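Hey, I'm writing a tutorial for new members on how sequence and structure tokens pair up, and I'd like a real worked example in the thread rather than a made-up one. If someone can provide the structure for the chain below, I'll link this post from the tutorial.
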Amino acid sequence: MAAFKYTSDADKRNDVDILNRALFFEHRGVWAYRIAADKVSSSDVGKAVLTLAAENRSDHEKHEDLLRDAIVGLGGNPIKMQDGYDLSSLISKGQGNVDSDVNIAKLALALEVGAAAGYVSDTMQLKSPDLIELEAGIACVEAIHAARIRAAFNSLGVKVPVVPKPVLIASSREDWVLKVSETASAAAHA
């Protein structure tokens, strides 16, 4: 990544803060996928969820490295991963849970959709063109994760559009997530 010349220290701090916010969500994603790996069943659905989770987690770990490197490159201090993260706001909205394979996949979907929408929003606040490109690229991968989870639901017999809206942004977030109550009868047969 080329060195970007900031016009002020405030602009550089702005970008470090935004990158650290993104790093927080990458840490949370890695943590959630690790926790979910211990919760899924050994059923075919559980195995499918576990395989997809491992692939997505690997990408999140790479995003962590990219973000840490960028933060250090700006002279900032990357935040550390916490021992645990609170997912109760997603669970209370019915956007997944850790009580079944299908609900774990729905929780992963909610996290991925939130990450993609968050990156899009944060990208508009960055000052460095190189960091805008970095975050936009990560947003693309987060959207791919969301689409892959939605495609997995289809392969398991839960028919949902893989791409429910033409954009994945904060205002379309609710169209991308699946509620715990949604597709319950179809999921029970998967």
